[in-house]
Each structure stands twice: as C-alpha cells, then as structure tokens.
TrEMBL record:
<dbReference type="InterPro" id="IPR016160">
    <property type="entry name" value="Ald_DH_CS_CYS"/>
</dbReference>
<dbReference type="InterPro" id="IPR029510">
    <property type="entry name" value="Ald_DH_CS_GLU"/>
</dbReference>
<dbReference type="InterPro" id="IPR016163">
    <property type="entry name" value="Ald_DH_C"/>
</dbReference>
<dbReference type="GO" id="GO:0004029">
    <property type="term" value="F:aldehyde dehydrogenase (NAD+) activity"/>
</dbReference>
<dbReference type="Pfam" id="PF00171">
    <property type="entry name" value="Aldedh"/>
</dbReference>
<protein>
    <recommendedName>
        <fullName>aldehyde dehydrogenase (NAD(+))</fullName>
        <ecNumber>1.2.1.3</ecNumber>
    </recommendedName>
</protein>
<keyword id="KW-0560">Oxidoreductase</keyword>
<dbReference type="InterPro" id="IPR015590">
    <property type="entry name" value="Aldehyde_DH_dom"/>
</dbReference>
<dbReference type="InterPro" id="IPR016161">
    <property type="entry name" value="Ald_DH/histidinol_DH"/>
</dbReference>
<feature type="domain" description="Aldehyde dehydrogenase">
    <location>
        <begin position="11"/>
        <end position="468"/>
    </location>
</feature>
<dbReference type="InterPro" id="IPR016162">
    <property type="entry name" value="Ald_DH_N"/>
</dbReference>
<comment type="similarity">
    <text>Belongs to the aldehyde dehydrogenase family.</text>
</comment>
<feature type="active site">
    <location>
        <position position="243"/>
    </location>
</feature>
Length: 471
C-alpha cells in the first residue's frame, strides 16, 4: 500500500486505486506516479484541517510565524534535492530552478514571517477594537509551472494568519509538493494544519471548490479553470482568490539611446523566456517605436542565440523543454498561427527540434498586429512578439489592449517618465528600467488575470477576516 497523501500529520493511502504517471519532459520517460485522488480523500483532509483550526487559529501569531520560519530553514537545507525534483518534473534549467523555483519558495515563507511582525492583528478605531482573524480552512489549488513557489506563496501567509490548509498540487509536477510535505513533517507543524491530496483537477480540485467546510479557495492556473472554480465556489459563497493568465508588455520608450535600447531588448527576451516562457508574468510582447523596429529585431535575434534548447541538468542550459507533449503542441500551434496571420518570423521554427524531449525553438515575431492571436492570447512558451507603435499614447493603449493585466515593464531614459507611463498600465507588477523582483510587493492580477494578492503583508491580508468589537 502506497502512503502518498499527507493528512492529519500522517502519510496515508488514497481511497482511489487509479494512478497518474509523471513524465520527465526532457527524456519523455516516466519517473513515477501518484494517486488519482478521490473526493473522499478531500473529505478526510478537510475534516483534519477543520479539527486543527480551533487550536491553530488561537495560537499566537509569533508562534505560527516561528513554525513557518522553521519550514523555510528546512527547505533551504533541502534546496539542492528539491531543485533536482523540479528539473526532472518541469524541465526548468537547473541554475534557474535553484533560485527561481526553490529559492522563491523560501522567500515566500520568509516574507510572510516578516510581514507578521508588524501586521495589525488588533487596532483601536474610536470606540471599536478592529480584530483580524483567520478566514478558516483554505483550499489551495496550484499549477505545475512553479510547483513549490506557487504553494508556498499561499501557505506561508495562510499559516501565519492562523488558517489551516488543504493543498492540491498539479498532477503534472506532484513530487515537489511531496517534498514540501516531507519538510512540513520534519519541522513538526501540528497535525491537520497542512494537508496534501494528489489528483486531477475535475475530481480533487472541484471537490475542494464545492466543499462546504472549506472557507476559502486560493487558486493559481488557467483562466478557463479559474472561472470554473469561481462558479463552483459560488454555491457556498466562499471567498476565492484567483491568479490567472497574462500577456505582459514591455514598453520601450522613444527616448532610449543606443546603449539603453541594447540593454532593454535582451532583458525583455530573458523576461519572456524565463522558465521556458511558462510563467504568467512573462513579458511576451515588446513594444518599440516604429523607427526602431529593425534595430529591435537584430538585437532580439542576437539575444535568442543564447537560448538554444538544451538539457536542463546542464549548468549552461538556459532553455529547457515544455512541460508536456500537449504543451509543446499548444506552443507550436501558436507559432504556426503567427506565421499564418502574417507576422514576420525573426527567429524560431514552426517545427520542434529533432531530438528527444518536449522542446520548441525559442521564437521571435516582428511586425505583429496588436489584435492578432499571438498578441492577444497567452501562449505559455518561449514566443516573443515585437509590436511597433507611433506614439506613447498608442503604446499605452496597446499594452492595455488585452483581457490580461498581471505584469509589464517600461524603459525610458527619464525615470520619472517611465514611472508616469507605468502608472497608466493596467497590471499589478511593472518593472521600471529593469527593476528587481521584490518578494514583499503585491503580486496578482487586474482584469481577467484575476483578483487577490500574494506577497508579504498583501498576501497576509487575503487570509484574514476583519471584525469589530464595539466597546
């Protein structure tokens, strides 16, 4: 009997006998399997979380934060081993996986701990005492593209807030979540506070969304599934936080000199190709002045040369495979659509490389129509669209001209002008002249990129209810 679900502080077997094979996207070979869990597994996990909630929610915030801090320490000790798992499951190049996949997961936990120190758990307001208390039992449904980071971004804040959690990780990359549960067990987080169930979205995910004893669902994934979660959760009027797709634009303004332009273009290529382009915040549209379109094409083509598809276990590789064969075909379908709709193929191919693994060629299109398929829909692969504009106002309109709004970038010789344009972009995180990632800053979506925020105190706010004691 395989003990692969983590429920109530113990490893237990699923009530289902069905298995899900996990495939290494580089070798195309199975690397193991996990249970295709059932609704009954969710019931057990939720019952455990509900039992644990009473005591955990009343534990002092600094004590809860100490457990989360210990979990961060434990993940740091296991960082190399978990990195190997991510590389095998997702195909992220190892040097990127170590800091972006596992490293950011550790950052999530540490930022939640830091936020707890100054969080206004209680504060006076005239004759009232404003109290922030945990929402309750949280169902966390997470994707495959960042299989640790997308869980820790939720559970770090949720656990510090005093909530208990039931995690459903992606069946495509479940072993990273399994490693996280092992770390939870090692640091002694109380039984029932963290629970993990494997399985398919339409079964385990939907059981979480409709469960009457789950108080909130925190979901990250595709727009179509996010809408389904919202529909199902409405039946019990539970709170839902959703972080969905993106089509982020990098706006290169017309005042950049040659050197600055030559910095912005390869930076955007890198921001597009990170994790194989399988990131919701990938900068997949590069907006450039029409007079500099040719210059942008040459710089992008030069930058692409460093992203030859390669073995992600190699220290030199920057671009690994797509996560599955289906994802590879999806990306190739978009590349073919770009060619069919008349975009100029600057780099890349409509065909996959002749090698084992779910690889696609790093691709750059130019002369892209802002309303075309590749400029409007999330591709989730290493495909960059260069779009020309004539005025700053037009650039802003193009950047905002999709259903998405999760991230973006602005480049200008004048930092104040860059910030002025950034303020007008309808997205949550905007890089200004290559500004660095900040784990304490809010992350989430405008428009159909979702609602709710993760990161630092902003993420902590998602998992508390506010009440007032009238004194």
């Amino acid at each position: 009997m395989s003990l692969e679900l983590y429920v109530d502080g113990k490893w237990i077997a699923s009530t289902s006998t069905e298995r899900i094979d996990v495939v290494n996207p580089t070798t195309e070979e199975p690397i193991g399997s996990v249970p295709a869990g059932a609704a009954e597994d969710v019931d057990m996990a939720v019952a455990a979380a509900r039992r644990a909630l009473g005591k955990w929610s009343q534990t002092a915030p600094d004590t809860r934060a100490e457990f989360v801090s210990r979990l961060a320490d434990e993940l740091e000790r296991r960082q190399d081993d978990i990195t190997d798992i991510v590389v095998a499951e997702v195909g992220t190049p190892r040097r990127v996986a170590r800091w972006a996949q596992v490293g950011l997961g550790i950052v999530d936990l540490r930022e939640a701990v830091t936020a707890a120190k100054d969080f206004p758990w209680e504060e006076p307001l005239r004759n009232s005492l404003i109290v922030r208390e945990p929402v309750g039992v949280i169902g966390c449904i997470t994707p495959w593209n960042y299989p640790l980071h997308q869980i820790t971004a939720k559970i770090g804040a949720a656990l510090v807030a005093g909530c208990t959690v039931v995690v459903k990780a992606s069946e495509v990359a479940p072993f990273t979540a399994h490693a996280l549960a092992k770390a939870v067990e090692a640091v002694g987080i109380p039984a029932g506070v963290f629970n993990m169930v494997h399985g398919y979205g339409p079964i385990v995910g939907e059981a979480i969304a409709v469960h009457p004893d789950i108080d909130m669902v925190s979901f990250t994934g595709s727009n179509s599934v996010g809408k389904r979660v919202l529909e199902l959760a409405a039946g019990t009027v539970k709170r839902v936080s959703v972080e969905l797709g993106g089509k982020s634009a990098a706006v290169l303004l017309d005042d950049l000199d040659v050197e600055e332009f030559a910095k912005a273009v390869p930076h955007t290529v890198r921001a597009c190709y990170m994790n194989g382009g399988q990131s919701c915040n990938a900068q997949t549209r590069m907006l450039v002045p029409r007079s500099r379109l040719s210059e942008a094409e040459k710089l992008a083509a030069k930058a692409v040369a460093a992203y030859a598809p390669g073995d992600p276990t190699s220290g030199d590789s920057k671009l690994g495979p797509m996560v599955t064969a289906a994802q590879r075909e999806r990306v190739l379908g978009y590349i073919r659509a770009g060619v069919k709709e008349g975009a100029k193929l600057v780099a890349g191919s409509v065909d996959a490389p002749a090698r084992t693994g779910f690889f696609v060629q790093p691709t750059v299109f130019s002369e892209v129509d802002p309303d075309s398929t590749i400029a409007q829909e999330e591709i989730f692969g290493p495909v960059l669209s260069i779009i020309a504009y004539d005025t700053t106002e037009q650039a802003i309109d193009i950047a905002n001209g999709t259903i998405f709004g999760i991230a973006g970038a602005v480049w200008s010789a004048d930092p104040e002008r860059a910030k002025s344009v950034a303020r007008r972009l309808r997205a949550t995180q905007i890089e200004v002249n290559g500004g660095k990632f900040n784990g304490a800053a809010p992350f989430g979506g405008f428009k159909q990129s979702g609602h709710g925020r993760e990161g630092g105190a902003f993420g902590l706010e998602e998992f508390v209810e506010i009440k007032s004691l009238q004194l």
